[in-house]
Amino acid sequence: xxxxxxxxxxxxxxxxxxxxxxxxxxxxxxxxxxxxxxxxxxxxxxxxxxxxxxxxxxxxxxxxxxxxxxxxxxxxxxxxxxxxxxxxxxxxxxxxxxxxxxxxxxxxxxxxxxxxxxxxxxxxxxxxxxxxxxxxxxxxxxxxxxxxxxxxxxxxxxxxxxxxxxxxxxxxxxxxxxxxxxxxxxxxxxxxxxxxxxxxxxxxxxxxxxxxxxxxxxxxxxxxxxxxxxxxxxxxxxxxxxxxxxxxxxxxxxxxxxxxxxxxxxxxxxxxxxxxxxxxxxxxxxxxxxxxxxxxxxxxxxxxxxxxxxxxxxxxxxxxx
Length: 321
Ligand SMILES: [Zn+2]
What we know:
Elements: E1 7-8, H1 27-31, H2 49-103, H3 105-109, H4 112-128, E2 130-134, H5 141-153, E3 167-171, E4 175-177, E5 183-184, E6 186-189, E7 192-196, H6 197-205, H7 213-228, H8 238-257, H9 272-285, H10 287-293, H11 295-305
Parallel strand pairs: 2-3, 3-7
Antiparallel strand pairs: 1-4, 4-5, 6-7
Helix pairs in contact: 2-4, 2-5, 4-5, 5-7, 7-9, 8-11, 10-11
């Protein structure tokens, strides 16, 4: 009998992953209200000109105090983080580098300076997340390689931590979920990122077939994080760019659903979320053909992620980092 859970491998015993919230089909459709601004009432009257001036002055004063405190805390946070990462780098940098070098072609292609930044981000990501293994023995290199997929996707973004997700679940192979009895290679819900380890490995071992479950699931997670995670103070324009991607991408997506010939895997026509995640796989694994066949979509993804896999350093605008 399968464990009483949403995610399990049929016929296998062992500690099941925790029950997650039901899968949300489309985070964009669910959370994008189109108007996130709340209107505040602007009541006038009752104050003299001097009073209004005083209130304004006080307002400016408080804004300045708050801004100053924010900058100061940001500075302290950055210093602490940098010290922490330096220590991690000294302890594990070389080992992580060797694992990534032998496994991740994107990392391998980076110039030394960019490799260093990739490595720092990976060390930070691994140190902050909890990795839970299901139906398999834990191994030290697994979190590093999985973190590498997240760092790769967000390499052009300042905020690369996917804050909404403190836990990443790794399952030995494909699994079923009680919710729909379908077979999954990975999925992302509000409660966690789930990845089949065997399919993650397969995704990177052939880096030219536009199939990469690691990048696919991280693409979903990034989308969820933008709407459900901590308010994105680092990449202020990310949500805006995500909307632009939706605006430009939807006509292409609709045309594909109507049968227009395209480069992406047919799974992209399932819904707009899958269109995004499948596009990401092709964007990284086959950028030349992608840019040639779907130049508008390629440009939109490149702007959204602030990176272009065809560039040596990948990042398009370093000022956004
Ligand atoms: Zn998907």
